[in-house]
Amino acid sequence: MSTTEGFKFVITNGAVTAMSRVDGTHTASLRLPSDATFSVSGSTITETRSGSKGTETLQFVQDSSDATLYHLSTDVQTFNSSTSGSAYTFTISNGAVTGVQHVLGTKSHSEPIDPTSKYVLGSDGKIVETSVHDNVIETITYVAGSTAGQYVIASDARTFVQAGSATTLLDVEGCDRAKFTIDASGAVTQVQQLRFDGSTSTVTVGSNTTYKQLEAGYVLEVQTHGSHTSYEVYHDGNGDGIYTEVAHGSGSTVDLVGLKAQINATIDGVL
Fold this sequence. Notes:
Blueprint: E1 5-12, E2 15-23, E3 26-30, E4 36-41, E5 44-50, E6 54-62, E7 70-79, E8 86-93, E9 96-104, E10 107-111, E11 117-121, E12 127-133, E13 136-144, E14 151-160, E15 173-182, E16 188-194, E17 200-202, E18 209-215, E19 218-225, E20 228-235, E21 243-250, H1 256-261, H2 265-270
Antiparallel strand pairs: 1-2, 2-3, 4-5, 5-6, 6-7, 7-14, 8-9, 9-10, 11-12, 12-13, 13-14, 15-16, 15-21, 16-17, 18-19, 19-20, 20-21
């Protein structure tokens, strides 16, 4: 099943001459940005915008079943030397980032590290943050700024995971995390909610909620209220025992094969 949200382009003699936004049955014309150039190559359309602060490159890919529909695949922003006065400092302990501070002018404040974010210190002096949210893998690269000890953002790249034919769509909710006790038969015998600070609280499971292990690393929660049923799927990608919500929807049926096809090694490494 293809999603009906996306973009359509008018291509004349190999050039994009018009574009529109599609949301279900509704289509709205969009103005082509004056600072943008488009290139068409096979099933991919690339839009490039250049400005005083840097360059943004957006890539659109053709829908798996509708050749007239395109979806945003990547959005990469590359920045010139910082002109905003905004910078970052990092607290590093044993080679790992344990704290992030946002510096704006003469003021600085700590920023929480998202549970689905991972920082890597490169041998080249760069710090790379990889995070997962919704259906997006975001990679931010920090480089040394003009002030000693401070970093600025060199690039911010977002990759949008395509659903393809899946009927259960990837939608990571990083603040909804849990730990599950699962017995030898695969039954979930205890549920613990994991708070942002890493502490846990045991959940009293009501009669309208059920949990079951779909397979190793995947747990399904189903809630029933009257005639309405909804589900959430939790996934432990790196085997640390912490499960993060990766999908939700109405009903109780999950396309696990389709969902797993959207989860790659980068996502598993963060979750």
